[in-house]
Amino acid sequence: MAAVVGAERGSLGAPAPARRGRGWGGGGRGGVAGLRRGFPLWRWAILLVAGVYFVIPLYAALRFAGIGAFRAVVHQSGFASSLGLSVRLAAITTVITLALMLPTAVYVHLRLPRLRRLLEAVTILPIVIPPVVLIVGVLQVAPGFLKGTPNLLALEYVILAMPFAYRSIDAGLRALDLKTLVEASNSLGAGWLATLRRVILPNLTTALLSATVLTVALVLGEYTMASLDLYQTFPVWIVVFDQTSGPISVAASLLALFVTWIFLLAIMTVGSRSGRRTGSQVALFSVVRREPGGS
Amino acid sequence: MMMTNAASDTAAAAARAAAAGSGGASVSLQNLSRSFGSVRALDGLSLELAPGELVALLGPSGCGKTTALRIVAGFESADSGSITVNGKDISQVPAARRDMGMVFQSYSLFPNMSALDNVAFGLRMRKAGAAQRRSRGTELLEMVGLAQHAKHYPHQLSGGQQQRVALARALAIEPRVLLLDEPLSALDAKVRLQLREQIRSLQQRLGTTTLFVTHDQEEALSMADRVGVMKEGRLEQVAPPDELYARPATTFVAEFVGTMNRIPGDLRGCGVVTVLGATLPVQGRTPGGAIEGEIDVLVRPEGVLVAVVPNGNGIVASKTFLGSLTRLRVLLSGDVTVAVDMPSAAAAAMPQGASVEVSLPAQVAVIVAPRR
Question: How many CA atoms lie within 13 A of A154 on its CB side?
Fold first, then answer.
């Protein structure tokens, strides 16, 4: 069938340029150049001071450990088992956290928007409650078959990860007009599962990846709970090993840091690719969706 | 509730639709009521849509028009009443199985999908094959003039283009009913006008029964076969646009649709009123069935006569050029201002401050309302 009318002739020839979201470059060369031109000297100075503050300790640690320690660290007893335990806990924690947080956040956004503030307040509690209290709480309610297994630690980590995971998912949901998208999907014949799979999840990819990275980073670096529960996770092993060999322990710490950085870089890369497609830019706690070029 | 001539109008629309070879469904809303807390959003709304008919629900914010549309779509449930499509009660059918296409006020395209994938989404949900989805999606995009944007993502399209893709997406599933929830209100004036014509043209060509919600009376009057004016959850009047304008059933409809003057007059019994020195018959009922007393006469700006005379009953207070017409505001005694629309050429002879005689045409029935 032929087009009915050539409405909006002016805008048919080429897509309207996307407007840039707040706080993020659009990715074009002009944008980057403009950013550089508009970046005042005092900001460079702050950036430099902050950079030095972070880089000097890393450099000192690298010098102290030496390259040889990185080769030696993987052969140390307890390295593989502790790292394996931490990775396993990270995987379990991430799965449980996302399985709990995603439906909860979606449900609250859709059906109980007035409870969003309350949920935000509740999810921040693990930050203010001491880990010992959390451990005692989890021990009280945990099912018997989990007690005495490292999986119990994963449940404790789920609570710790809650503030970070919820905020990432919440930011992703806030960037979407979720209610309208869900209703549009329903009106086109999609049930809840199809809507979740084809509409909600693909538009939350970057938010979910952010939640995953934060959760993984938290679990890989958590010491207090693991130590109190007497499990030798990677951070606990580093502390224990520190008493045997300082340089190797420092090399292990740096290794953990680099692994976390690689995760973060991966999420940013995947996020920016997905963002180019969907018109959104995602940081760890915020999502900016670009507006259409005009009416 | 006023449903004057509704049945005959429905029949007329049905005949029009049948003549156009419509495949649309008949829709019946029966006595729908819905409350949100203490607010009664819908209060016994009943409306019939003939196959292929476009009915607009028009009313001020909070009158219940969007609630009515959302109940028809299945996103809200009514406290009481029912909805039937082709005689079958669908009140308990979930939104996903109602076979209704909907275009929303906000751009509702799925950001993760291209324009083509958005249009084909409903077909995918109906298990259509990839080739069929592509072919039908392309056909619909061609229909709305956006075939060359098939691979573009929503953020790469303008607002008007997004709404056209949304329209194509809603029509791709060949819905029994098309629901339009203020789809033009986020667009600028020029695009709104173009899209308005495009929607109407497509709707007439496809013969899809359409329920259109808007607060813009120009949109409603220019697009709809019939317009339902709503107030406080109830339909005040459902009628074709010309009838709604010329013969409003209530004071609210008279004043909500178009511009209306209020000129003080006196009921003199026997269904006549004196106003501006003339005695005229009353159209419709008098307020509260009154026979005598002070009332306001409601007259459209184009229904008022004005002539330049020395020592007339009014003075031209202001003039607004509207193109072929000019609107005069004439100040009468008693601090009453009357708007008068007249050809711009004739208005040129009436400068601001000129003395004029304002009158109403003889023998034309007027609407009366309680004195304010």
Answer: 19
Alpha helices in chain A (DSSP H): 9-12, 29-37, 41-73, 79-111, 116-123, 125-128, 131-141, 151-174, 178-187, 192-195, 201-203, 205-221, 224-228, 234-242, 246-278
Q: What gap in Å lies between CA B211 and CA B180, rounded to an integer? A: 6
| Closest of B92, B97, B95 to residue B82, by C-alpha | B92
C-beta neighbour count of A291 within 10 angstroms:
15
Q: What is the pLDDT of residues B131-177, one digit of tens each?
A: 999 999 999 999 888 999 999 999 999 998 999 999 999 999 999 99
CB contact under 8 Å between B112 and A190, yes or no, is no
Determine the residue type at B37: G
Average pLDDT over residues B248-258: 90
Nearest-angstrom CA–CA distance, B55 and B178: 11
Cβ-Cβ contacts under 8 Å, B208 against chain A: none
Q: Which of residues 300-359 of B touch A (CB under 8 A)?
A: none
Q: Which residues pair with A40 in a beta bridge?
A: none
- How many CB atoms within 10 Å of residue B6? 19
Instruction: Report phi then psi at A218, rounded to 5.
Output: -65, -45
Q: How far is CA B233 from CA A37, B43, B62, B68, B338, in A?
A: 57, 5, 8, 9, 32
Q: How many CA atoms lie within 13 A of A6 on its CB side?
A: 6
Q: How far is CA B343 from the centre of its chain?
A: 27
What is the pLDDT at residue B12? 46
Tokens at residue A160, please?
């710790």
Alpha-carbon distance of B18 to B50, in angstroms, equals 10
Of B110, B152, B173, the CB nearest to A181: B110
With beta carbons less than 8 A apart as the criterion, state whether B276 and B264 touch: no
Neighbours of B16 (CB within 10 A): 17
Contacts of A192 (CB under 8 A, 6+ apart): none
Rounded Cα gap, residues A238 and A251, in angstroms: 9
Beta bridge partners of B336: B332
Contact predicate B209/B18, CB 8 Å:
no
What's the pLDDT at B372? 78
Both structure tokens of B48: 């019939």
User: Which residue is listed with tokens 């009140």?
Assistant: B91
* A276 Cα to chain B: minimum distance (Å): 9
Q: Which tokens hold the place of A249?
A: 């322990």
Q: Number of residue pairs across A and B with CB atoms under 8 Å?
A: 158
Neighbouring residues of A201: CB distance < 8 A, sequence distance ≥ 6: A208
Q: Determine the residue type at B150.
A: A
- Closest by CA to B259, choosing from B193, B341, B185, B169, is B341
Give the separation between CA B323 and CA A217, rounded to whole angstroms: 68
Q: What residue type is B70 in one-letter code? A: R
Distance CA B256, CA B245 (A): 10
Average pLDDT over residues B74-78: 94
What is this structure's pTM?
0.78
Phi and psi torsions of B176, nearest 5°: -70, -35
What amino acid occupies position B159? G
The answer to whether the complex's ipTM is over 0.85 is no
For residues A139 and A155, give the distance between their C-alpha atoms in angstroms, rounded to a whole number.
Answer: 10
Q: Distance between CA B101 and CA B118 in Å, rounded?
A: 13
What spatial distance separates the first Cα and last Cα of chain B, rounded to whole Å? Answer: 23
